[in-house]
């Protein structure tokens, strides 16, 4: 199955959700190319961008699991080819 490159942008508005995000990223670590996290202290949020290389179904599955976490907002952008 062909893989796609995607970036998942995540905003964590609830500190208790950090453990859930880290668990999911560990679960899908074979697909993670890299990640960058930025604590935005003035707003009390954390911003994470995650680059992945995976089959589209896997990207969609990870995105659904991330969005199911409380206090999390995320969006995914996939490569066309």
UniProtKB/TrEMBL annotation:
InterPro entries, sorted: Acetolactate_synth/TF_NikR_C, ACT-like_dom_sf, FeFe-hyd_TM1266
NCBIfam families reported in the protein's UniProt record: hyd_TM1266 (TIGR03959)
Protein name: Iron-only hydrogenase system regulator
Organism: Ruminococcus albus (strain ATCC 27210 / DSM 20455 / JCM 14654 / NCDO 2250 / 7)
């Amino acid at each position: 199955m062909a893989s796609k490159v995607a970036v998942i942008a995540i905003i964590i508005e609830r500190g208790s959700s950090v453990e859930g995000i880290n668990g999911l990223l560990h679960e899908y670590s074979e697909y993670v190319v890299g990640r960058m996290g930025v604590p935005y202290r003035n707003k009390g949020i954390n911003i994470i961008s995650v680059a992945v290389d995976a089959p589209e179904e896997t990207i969609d599955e990870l995105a659904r699991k991330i969005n199911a976490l409380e206090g999390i907002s995320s969006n995914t952008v996939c490569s066309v080819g």
